[in-house]
Design goal:
By secondary structure, the protein is of the alpha/beta class. It has eleven helices and twelve strands.
């Protein structure tokens, strides 16, 4: 399947990124391999993970997702065909963005991913105890060493993002090409406004996480339903708001018009938003993938976009 690509600096990525947070957590290695295979077969090439995934699981320490992806890359021999994004700064024992932390963490990620370069390397969380010039210089060193191709930021304030971009330009350092914000139909103020304005002004591509609001925007969480899922408590909280049910109703209307899944419509709305290059969505099983990949072929009308915008306002 041929899928259009979006540019993130020198990288060319599919407009749907596969979230790797479930690999080594709710998906074992065999299921993870099957999901990765199906995603690539469906035209995807952009895989997102972090060195911290999934330290929160009892018995895990972080790096489990990278290990699964690295084993898959080695088994398939397809490293050059996919864009791998990972993150630094949140793994237990390697938190923060000091130079020493970044340089130790990247080597751990490269080892687990079984590769000699990372395509897109995110600062997972901003570390305001470190001057932007320090961590940008450390990241720039990784780019110059060939360990990282492009850099990006996640969970950063608009002023610190602006400061980081200005520092890169002034000092001739590697510059963020993308931003990974929390953004979806039931969480718009986590990105829209000042942060989105900085991204637009500086030409950064947004790669939103929680694109499906922990599963809420798949439509499986409804009043009176009880879903057994690792993320059900987080998703169910949206039902307690005025916005949640209103958004589901609008999604139902648009989905019916296209004979599409709710998740497909939610991702298509996000992909159509200003600055957004590729929403991130994860699949625990191959059966969950088709509704995600279908968003690549769904174009919503202006009237449908307006309906969803108003329902989610």
């Amino acid at each position: 399947m041929t899928v259009s690509r979006k540019n993130l600096g020198s990288l060319s990525v599919s407009p749907l990124s596969l979230g790797g947070n479930v690999f080594g957590w709710t998906a074992d290695e065999a299921e993870s391999f099957a999901v990765l295979d199906a995603y690539v077969a469906g035209g995807g090439n952009f895989i997102d993970t972090a060195d911290a995934y999934s330290f929160w699981v009892e018995g895990n320490k972080g790096g489990e997702s990278e290990t699964v992806i690295g084993n898959w890359l080695a088994a398939r021999g397809n490293r050059a065909d996919v864009v791998i994004a990972t993150k630094v700064g949140a793994q237990p024992g390697l938190k923060g963005l000091s130079t020493a932390t970044i340089k130790k963490a990247v080597d751990g990620s490269l080892s687990r991913l079984r590769t000699d370069y990372i395509d897109l390397y995110y600062t997972h969380y901003d570390d305001e105890s470190v001057e932007v010039a320090e961590f940008l210089t450390a990241l720039d060193d990784l780019v110059k060493a060939g360990k990282v191709r492009e850099i990006a930021a996640s969970n950063i304030s608009a002023p610190r993002l602006e400061e980081s971009l200005a520092c890169s330009d002034r000092e001739g350092l590697a510059r963020y090409v993308a931003l990974q914000p929390h953004y979806n139909l039931v969480s718009r103020d986590t990105y829209e406004g000042e942060l989105a304005d900085v991204a637009a002004r500086h030409g950064l591509a947004a790669v939103p996480y929680y694109a499906l609001a922990s599963g809420f925007l798949t439509g499986k969480y409804r009043p009176g339903t009880d879903i057994d899922s690792a993320r059900s408590a987080k998703a169910a909280q949206y039902l307690a708001t005025d916005r949640g049910p209103r958004v589901l109703q609008a999604l139902d209307t648009v989905a019916a018009a296209h004979d599409a899944e709710i998740a497909t419509v939610a991702l298509a709305w996000l992909a159509a938003r200003p600055t957004v290059a590729a929403p991130i969505a994860s699949a625990r099983t191959v059966a969950q993938l088709p509704s995600l990949l279908a968003s690549l072929d769904l174009t919503l009308t202006d009237a449908e976009l307006t309906l969803l915008n108003e329902a989610s306002a």
